[in-house]
Design a protein that fits this description.
The complex is a heterodimer. Chain A is α/β, with parallel strands linked by helices. Chain A is 37% helix and 17% strand. Chain B is mainly β. Chain B has strands spanning 4-6, 21-25, 31-32, 50-54, 58-67, 85-91, 97-102, 116-127, 130-139. In chain B, the strands form 2 sheets. Chain B has a 5-stranded mixed β-barrel. In chain B, strands 3-2-4 form a 3-stranded antiparallel beta sheet, with no helix packed on it. Chain B is globular, with a radius of gyration of 16 Å. Classes of the chains: A alpha/beta, B mainly beta.
Chain lengths: 396, 145
């Protein structure tokens, strides 16, 4: 066993939804659930890492301390991470690093959010040097606009159809039906998706994930601590938080342009491909070893991109996997057994942790109603703004 | 006649054949858009001087979409009621992809990945100060106009 493993002692979530409460309350519910799952007292935690939320005032900026105070000051070390959609993974990586360095034994990682309705818009104020502000002012370019660019490329380059995208939603809706933490637990038909309004061509409203309130928490400890206390044998094998390599030639949210490849040439791997590759390399496994994947389906079409970015099939072949049922529970490589963002909606700082919670339940055989039988190795993937992204490999 | 000014200063020219203005590193020749200053972002280059350079006016569609719903502020709608518009990401010979709205009169049905597009300058929105212009992409072989 690699010396870079850390143990997942416990996981917990607050159900996703629109609850209208403060993010701290969600975070504490998830944290207490994870601690109870681990059988570890909060007073035994020596490090807390919070996932920052940027839409909840100062308490959100110092989320680690905010959660620590809400749980009751216990003198633990504190850190707060922000990496957009990869926030939770970066927070997890911070905890892992201290544990592997021998500086911490038990760490609690928490992400929680309360999100506004509708399009995610930039913070208020005029910011002429901020691409996230300029893309709205100069172009009216929304998040779904970027998702739609990727979706359209799949159609024009690989022959994907809007019906394929709809089938991703149908599959994920089915997966999430009995997930107690999912916000949407209702079957969706392809006709429902294709009959919903087009937001950004070719994507319909039901192709695009909502924004939600929610929280997820993970208790990490050293492998020695887990053995000594007879805790779960689920291990984190890798956390990839690589940045892109120049030139980044794929149009990324929220940018108005890409880097130029004129002087250095187009890189061998795209940014998203490099995230998965780094995770496989760190874990010492290959894509063939993966039993289950939780990927960031901000849109239905993005799930298909991720399947290829993680090398679970060749470029342009994800629709074939989908159509063959390979990515459905019971298939060769089930993707988003939790129901994914399609059933959860996005709660930014909690989402990468929620992926790890799901894989932990899957690997323990506790994913009632959505279990991937015999799963021993799982991988997550997500991409955030400004060159952030992450992939976590979990195994037992 | 109302005044016509760019919605953002120094990003594009407004002559009869308008062009985006990029920055070229005087050390490694890498081109950047939007314009940049300070330090070259090529990790192998220590350059810190740039010259303005006009980018190619024509490129190929990398991908495209539209905005069927009015985007949130700071977007300012061009008309009341809101009229949806198309967007295109266009790959230029300089090796970079630049987003832009698609010229008035063209929609997603007029576009295909790989199609040639040409830069034009049109009105983004108008207010009491006059028209505020922006760069846009127009198909060179459009079906409508």
């Amino acid at each position: 066993m690699s010396s870079n493993d850390v143990a997942i002692a416990g996981v917990g979530m607050h159900p996703w939804g629109k609850w209208g409460k403060n993010f701290v309350e969600y975070g504490v519910v998830a944290a207490r659930a994870a601690l109870a799952d681990a059988g570890i007292a909060w007073t035994d935690v020596d490090l807390i890492v919070g996932g920052e939320t940027v839409r909840n005032g100062y308490g959100g900026y110092v989320a680690g301390a905010t959660f620590a105070q809400a749980l009751g000051w216990n003198g633990a070390r504190v850190a707060t991470s922000y990496a957009a959609c990869a926030t939770g993974a970066q927070a997890l990586d911070t905890a892992r690093a201290r544990i592997l360095a021998g500086l911490s034994e038990v760490a609690l990682v928490v992400g929680a959010d309360t999100t506004p309705k509708g399009f995610l818009a930039p913070n208020a104020g005029e910011r002429w040097d901020d691409p996230d502000w300029l893309r709205f002012r100069l172009l009216g370019m929304t998040n779904p606009g970027y998702f739609a660019l990727y979706a359209r490329r799949r159609m024009d380059l690989y022959g994907a159809t809007q019906a394929d995208f709809a089938e991703v939603k149908v599959k994920n809706a089915k997966h999430g039906l009995s997930n107690p933490n999912a916000r949407y637990r209702k079957e969706v038909s392809a006709a429902d998706v294709l009959g919903s309004a087009i937001v950004s061509d070719p994507l319909h409203l039901l192709d695009i994930c909502a924004t939600s309130d929610g929280a997820a928490a993970v208790v990490l400890c050293s492998v020695e601590y887990a053995r000594k206390h007879g805790l779960s044998d689920v291990r984190i094998k890798a956390i990839a938080t690589v940045t892109p390599t120049f030139p980044n030639t794929v149009m990324d949210m929220p940018n108005l342009s890409t880097d130029s490849s004129a002087t250095l040439g187009v890189p061998e791997r795209t940014f998203k491909e490099s995230i998965g590759d780094a995770a496989y390399e760190e874990a010492g496994i290959s894509p063939d070893d993966v039993d289950v994947a939780e990927v960031y389906d901000l849109s239905t079409a993005l799930e298909l991109d991720w399947i290829e970015d993680l090398s679970l099939c060749k470029r342009g072949e994800a629709e074939q996997l989908l159509r063959a049922g390979d990515t459905t529970i019971g298939g060769r490589i089930p993707v988003n057994p939790s129901g994914g963002l399609a059933c959860f909606g996005e709660a930014v700082p909690a989402q990468a942790l929620a992926q790890v919670c799901e894989l932990t339940w899957q690997l323990r055989g506790q994913a009632a109603g959505r279990q991937v039988e015999g799963a021993r190795v799982g991988i997550t993937a997500n991409q955030g703004l400004f060159g952030h992204g992450s992939s976590v490999v979990v195994a037992r | 006649m109302t005044a016509s000014t760019p919605a953002i200063e120094g990003w594009f020219t407004t002559s009869a054949e308008p062009a985006l203005i990029g920055s070229q590193c005087t050390t490694c020749t890498t081109v950047f858009f939007p314009r940049t200053q300070g330090f070259c972002r090529n990790p192998a280059c220590n350059g810190d001087e740039f010259t303005d350079t006009e980018l190619s006016r024509r490129g190929r569609v990398w991908s495209y979409t539209d905005a069927q719903y009015q985007p949130p502020p700071p977007y300012i709608r061009a008309s009341d009621p809101y009229v949806p518009f198309a967007l295109a990401a266009v790959e230029l010979p300089e090796g970079l992809v630049v987003l832009g709205q698609v010229a008035d009169g063209f929609g997603v049905d007029d576009l295909k990945v790989g199609d040639e597009m040409e830069l034009v300058v049109e009105t983004l929105y108008s207010d009491e100060a006059g028209d505020h212009t922006i760069w846009r992409w127009r198909p060179t072989t459009g079906a409508s106009a």
